[in-house]
TrEMBL record:
It comes from Drosophila melanogaster. The lineage of its organism: Eukaryota, Metazoa, Ecdysozoa, Arthropoda, Hexapoda. Gene3D superfamilies: Superoxide dismutase, copper/zinc binding domain. One of its GO terms (biological process) is superoxide metabolic process. It comes from the Eukaryota. It holds the Pfam family Sod_Cu. Residues 742-866 form the Superoxide dismutase copper/zinc binding domain. SUPFAM superfamilies: Cu,Zn superoxide dismutase-like. InterPro entries: Cu-only_SOD, SOD-like_Cu/Zn_dom_sf, SOD_Cu_Zn_dom. This is RE50384p. GO terms for molecular function: metal ion binding.
Amino acid sequence: VVSRVSRRTHAHYDVKVSHACHCHIHSEQRFSNNLVTQGVSRTRTMAPGGRQLLWMASICWIASLMSGADAQHLIAYISQRGLHGEITFRQMNATTVEIKANLEATLQYPDQVWSWGVRRFPVDYSNIDPDERCELSRLGSQVLSFDEDLEYLVLPGNETSSWERNMQLIGDRGIWGKSLVLTEVNANARICATITTIQSSVEHMAEARFNTPVAGSVHFRWLAPAEGAVGDTLIYSDLYHIRAQPAALEEDRSQAGPFTQHHWKIYVTDIFKHDHHRTEDNCNFLQQVFDPQGSGAGKGIGDLDARLGRIGVAKNALRSPQRSVFRDAQLALLPSDLTIPHRTLYLVLFDNQHPDSYLACTKIRHVQPLTHKTFINSGGVKGEVTFMQRSKFDQTFLNFTLGAPLSQHVSRKFAEDVAAFRIHSLPPVPSRMGHEDYCLTTGDMHNPREINENIPPPGYGTQEQYPVGDLSGKLQGRNKGYWHQYVLPGTSSELNGLYWDVFLPLQGRYSIAQRSLVIYTFNRSNVTNITKMIWGCSSLSQYQRNGIYQQNMVTAQVLFRYPVVGRVIFRQTAEQPWQDTTVLFEYLIQADGSTQNTTHDHRWAIHSNAPGKDFYDWQQRCISAGPVYNPFRVDWGNRSVDDFCRPSLASMCRVGAMDARSGTLTIAGGRRVAQKISRKMFVDGNLPLSGRHSILGKSLVIYEDSGPKARGERLACSAVIGHFRRKVVAKEWYANGDSLTVSGRVEITQQSEYDVSNVEVQLKGLQDNTGYYIHRTPVEANLAFPCEASTLYGHWNPFDVSPKSSPPPKRGTTDQYEMGDLSGKFGGLEGVTQFEDAYNDTNLPLFGYNSIIGRSVVIQKKQKNARWACSTLERGYSPSEARELRAIASFHHPTGYAYGYIKMTQLIHNDGSQSETVIEVKLRHPGKNDRNSTRNHNWQIFVNPVGVDAAVKPTITRCVAGGYVWNPYYTQLADPLNLDLYEQECSPDNPLRCYVGDVGARLGTIDLGGERVVLTDSNFPLEAPVGAIGRSIVIFGPDHSHERFACANIEPDHNVIKYINLQKPPRFVVAQFLDELRSVMGIPEWMLDVDARKTKELHGGACIQMIIHFKGPLAHRLELDMSRLIAAGRLDAPSLFIPGYVNQKRKATISYRTCGVRDTNEKRTKNFKGGFYSSSSAPNEPKPLVLAFVVIGLAFRFL
């Protein structure tokens, strides 16, 4: 029986559908979800929400079929000024349009009279100010009024009215792509909404975004031709200069106004010349106007100016913006035109003074809808919330799919208790997952307009009356004509199904991207005072348009270490530098000891160079960072370069001028208030993380205007470096005493600590298994039974979840199982020989203290739940992108005070950025039979290596050569003796505030004589120029003692592999052979071991073949010494020199010998043809002629 579980394919689904995809089409369809073919059972599951999204896609497809002949169907979504609902426009025939209203007035504004009409420009929904977005200067001139023909829109009275009017939806006088504007007759208040299509699949958007010397965008919005309707194209332009413009010439007074006029065309690149290396700074490589039909010069599709006239570019967009809209019936762009293999379309502007010269050019890019998702997987409730926005000119759609499908009781209880759904301004802190305060780290509700008073009850106001993040306030009880699946209809605060929101942008400064969804429930502990409390939360992540796969993101980080410590995260869609970048300041804390006061209003900027060593200078600090980064050369002549810089026009600012666009920073005086005071998030539209103008490799500088004059205004600086995704793979399987039949892999990836982990499982050769689990430590390959509890211990369970309280497999949520219980969370391996699965896990981190990197996966048998096979979770990476650095502190001194090792691994990326360091600790007291155990040993990295002092008896002189604790970044330099302050500020949640060498303060103490442990440290660099290799680790006495107890040097940990064939004497034991080998070579067991899987007998048991692993700093020398020892049978000096120690009883010889390739006992029955061998009674005896040929052959070989 083969079970295959995949998220990429689907069978049929068992669903009932009504009012789906905001298409207002009633349909019902039934499907089945079982497919049995040729005796193979295929159970199809998808990533959380994948099934729901596929369902939605199917319904949209059905809707499009049912409305194919009625494609000209437009809609405007309204929720403003006390009026909520929709107005639709449907082309009845060539001249008549049916207009329908589905509106309701709120109790606050029961009587309304509106003048209504259509204006030229669509609404920019990234602007959340209802008054600004509806300003007539932004929406353009009126092109149509309904007042005369249809009279005013009056409520009550016109809630569900219908009208007919002679007009066109598409064409020269069409209303598609424009804005519907309602103006209150008495109060002059205004409502506005974009008029868009109901069928989203027929409408497309492309953008040409300019950076220099002209900035702004030209949007191409087009309707694809459909059955019963022609296509159409609108072009919106909003361009402006970013440099001071010279005065107009006398002969060209047309350029004397607030804007300049330019010829513009669409060019296409040469099909024989790839343009992936082209930059938009130089347009001379463009030679051909886009003319696929061969219409001739001036008549091609790309000759926009010939058909539409010149395009305007504002001289000062703050004072006099120049927005234009064009309709071009001949420009029928399709997505295929924008993705032609090896060819790219460019929009080109020509110089107004020199019409034959290029002024600027940029690629025309197909704009994909933005999709963000968040997963709910806790407290027995599963589901997801999806947010989708087609462009900034469109509203946002939401899809809630929450519940407990396997437990009606849990679903009902959740529906009864839920109080509110809100977007908070920050994502939760990943390191606090599993703690009670996890969701308290999300900050306040996202409320950039600071609406705190006169907020109507949920569902009783219109959407501009609520904070942006108040989803329940805006959506509860709304969108009644859409598909919903309420557990308690009309009596609960639950949100479930489809909604739309006109004040919930996914792009722009106020975007909800990368923030968090927080769910509140009622606290009824005091029936006289029922309050709301946080029930759960999760981060929002960007997904591809299909909503199934995560969008690849570029993540960068800045680590501040002096005199401020902190971390900044930058995130942007990969290879799309024109998209928004989110900037998250995780924390900023004073660290040099000179002050414990919180300071405010710090300016900050991206500078052109990576900082040098002057980051801690007291004079001219951070001068090496250079000037503010300005790749597009923004220049306003005699005016200050930031005079025209505004948050709403980011392109008029220098790229690095962050404070002018996003505001200033606060630096906390201590860690206790840092999360609340200094943690902030910004969204910026002019901060590329990829491409030619990427800020990676630049520096982030924080200013302090009141600082010492000698130091200058620059307080701190640090480089912007990459922060790469993590991937682990378990694929090298070890049998636990049985024969090994399993193959395949378990692969887990996580883009950042703020994303879910993606798990893919492919296993073959299973035999009566039950499940697979992540265990605490890596596999020890030299053991005959490497999967046992004595070495891998139990499941990885950092939150101490009781397995007895966990629900049956797949019936609970991830927080109800042990973190490593993959079978419990997602299903086991019962009854299959081959297994494939793919899923998302919200509780399986590859970053931080609870990371699973360096642990192991164990497959269990059904019989007695015996451990059957196991594999270590190793890092997965491409050698072309990174390399793994391994180090070891080997405690092997025979007269020392600790025995074992501390191993460290770290990934070094090509840009120099470093991953977290994974540490494996295996230590005990010296002595082969010593079983003593001591606990709570502190441990630190000291600046120097140790020598003979590692084994001296007096603790006052032991390990003294190591010097003092390593502090390369001068933490608390101004007050180094204030230990109370240091111990207060240095902690696991503030690792950068600790000395780099103070490992115990970040990770906790260690034990001697206990179990192996795996730890993850974010502040443990291994490689120079700031690296731990070459220094020493000092372990202090038990029970938090301050006396130096044991020490060892940190050295590179190499791994050399060698095959060896030995003659097998009677009663040969591999373990005994290895012990003899180590004894002669004078090395501990972890420097030489064997791969137990590959040991096998040869030549009928006369020989044995093994794979020997030589490890540690002397691995290459060990391999040579063992070769000499086996060949000669003697090794005069030990391979490992131990300062101050000579083993007088060391054995120098060994009796084992190598074995030949050919079996000497094999009987040869074949005759060698040609007369060299005779068929005598002694077939193995060569004839003289044969010997002669052998001698001649050897002679020629050595000539």
